[in-house]
Amino acid sequence: MNATVFVIFLFGVFSLVGGLIGYIKADSMPSLIAGSISGIVLLLCSYGVLKGNQLAAIVTLVVALLLGGRFLLTIIKNFKIMPDFLMIAFSLLSIILVIQHLLKK
After folding, report:
1. Where do the structural domains in the chain lie, given as residue ranges?
2. Mean of per-residue pLDDT scores for the chain
3. Interhelix angle 3-26/29-50, nearest 10 degrees
4. Helix, strand, or coil here: 67?
5. Closest CA to 93 of 32, 1, 20, 5
6. Count of beta carbons in the 10 Å neighbourhood of residue 102
7. Which among 24, 73, 79, 90 has most CB atoms closer than 10 A?
8. Which pLDDT score is estimated for 1?
C-alpha cells in the first residue's frame, strides 16, 4: 500500500468517525450523514486508487476540495483544532498526493 492510498483511507476513517462524534456530541444528523457519505466514498476511493482507477483519484480530489473548503470556513470563524484543522490537513495532503499520483500515470 502506498502513501496516497493510506492517506485516503485514513481520511475516510476520520470522516466516518467525525460524523459519528458530531452526531453523538451535538445531536447533529447532518454531521452523521455527511461524515458517513464522505467517509464511505473516500474508503471506496482508496481501494480504487490502489487498483489504479483514475476516476477514484478524481473523486478523491473533489471530496477533498469540498471537505477542505467546508472546514476552512469554520476554522476562520472559531479556530478549533479538532476537527477543523485536522480535516483541512487531510484535505490538503490528499490533494497533493492524488495530484502527484495522477501526474505519474
Report:
1. 3-104
2. 93
3. 170
4. helix
5. 5
6. 15
7. 90
8. 65
C-alpha cell at 9: 483511507
pTM: 0.91
Sign of CA dihedral 78, 27, 30, 33: positive
Classify residue 37 as exposed, middle or buried by CB count within 10 Å of its CB (0-12, 13-18, 19+): middle
List, for residues 62-95, the tens digit of each pLDDT value: 999 999 999 998 888 887 777 888 899 999 999 9
String of DSSP letters for 29-61: HHHHHHHHHHHHHHHHHHHHHHTT-HHHHHHHH
Q: What is the pLDDT of residues 5-18, one digit of tens each?
A: 999 999 999 999 99
